[in-house]
Design goal:
Layout lengths: L3 E2 L2 E2 L3 E5 L4 E2 L2 E2 L1 H13 L4 E3 L12 H15 L6 E3 L5 H14 L3 E5 L8 H14 L4 E5 L1 H4 L5 H8 L4 E6 L4 H11 L4 E4 L5 H6 L4 E4 L6 H12 L3 H17 L7 H9 L16 H13 L5
Parallel strand pairs: 3-6, 3-12, 7-8, 8-9, 9-10, 10-11, 11-12
Antiparallel strand pairs: 1-2, 4-5
Helix pairs in contact: 1-2, 2-3, 3-4, 4-6, 6-7, 9-10, 10-12, 11-12
Amino acid sequence: MSSTTNGKTNFRGSFTALVTPFKDDALDQKAFRDLVEWQIGEGTNGLVPVGTTGESPTLSHDEHNQVVEWCVDQARGRVPVIAGAGSNSTREAIELSQHAEKAGADAVLIVTPYYNKPTQEGLFQHYKAINDAIGIPIIIYNIPGRSVIDMSVDTMKRLYELKNIAGVKDATANMVRVSQQRAVLGEGFNQLSGEDATALGFMAHGGDGCISVTSNVAPRLCAEFQSACLRGDYAAALVLQDKLMPLHQNLFIETNPAPAKYALSILGKITDTVRLPMVPLGEKSKAAVRDAMVHAGLVN
């Protein structure tokens, strides 16, 4: 479903933004590897460890690197691995990216630097420095809701001229951006949605796939949804969208990934442990997540 050539990518379909399972506040290697195995078995097209959903802000660098290594090792080349490697320190992002490349990741996902609010030129220089330090593709992660800054289409265009900048995970939830980026950057620019609820529109506008939170919990349905979109069967995709929509909403009823971890605990895959400042779901939210899982046919 995907390939990487000449520093550019052709990722297609449903990519899961994996949660990081904990046991007694430590990484749970067995649960993580089992999760990867289940995801691949259910038809997921690619894996994205240690992004936002993987609680990367509260993992140590050693833990972060460990999760990437486990993911690459467990996937064994069956599906591509796009390793989260972003930071608001360029030096740190370079170190994480170099480790991901060494570990065998197919690409890295680099979030726009949060909190310190660089200018568009600062964004360009940040990504250029990472581009110059590694030899695998880079997916820009544009998520103004979390990082405050929004990378402009013009900055993306400048970056796309560099050898390793390959595409974007677009979490703006702005359908217009997909078409704007397509118009300026062309069809080769690999556009992946970063927002489950609007992925249907994103795909209709010319997207290539989705880096999904919901696919942690409903991997088969998300893969089927993406497959329908990619073959242009939007009637089938809409049926799946209706089935998944309560899940898309309720997995964000409290801050991600607490709802996704709770849902996975219902399925018996992991515990619902999160690290502070994340907290487990409240009772009302738990009921809403369970209802959404029933609606999607995942539990009775």
